[in-house]
Please model this.
Amino acid sequence: MGWKGNRKAQTEAITLVLISGIVIALVGFAYTWGRPMIDKRSTVSQFTSAVKFMEDLDKKIVGMAGSCSFEGACEETLVLPVAGVIAIDEANNTIIYTVQVTQPLITKGEVLFNTADNASVARYGETPGVISLRGESQPGQQIIYNLVFSLRYRELDSDEPWKGYKIQLLETQKKSGNNKIIFSYSGSETQQGQARNNGDLIVSKIKVQPL
Model:
């Protein structure tokens, strides 16, 4: 199964524009109470490092799903570039990476990075993994801001032939960690008639272990 879609150049352009816009907005923000310039630079650095990590993680998982032939054949490890917590939400087929920062980047809504289509099922050729960002704040004596990055995998359906393809994330006993993430190919299976278009659904299973 070739997981690489035909919209790579388009999604890379979307990502570049979004990152540039957020960084420019942050650098141009009028901070009050004399916050030091170092805070701005630190937040920009954390943000860009976390985005690259999520992109690399997605690329490696998609590559593993498309190239590995049997369970246990492939395993990869990525170390978190910025202090934070990485977790797996198997129910929503999502990897979540939360980074604490000193300045707000996004306070409302959600930003998509690698696609403009956030549907749970998309046409084959779209990106199987959707990378997004939302912001959280924790009130207190000093407000704490979190950047919450998500990588969610969805079904891709084709018309000729009528089939569906999906990367399925599998949990291990440890569901979260703050150091690194290990992921390995756990085989594939064909579920007859289970695709959204009523065709066969080909599922590539990836075991994910945060540490």
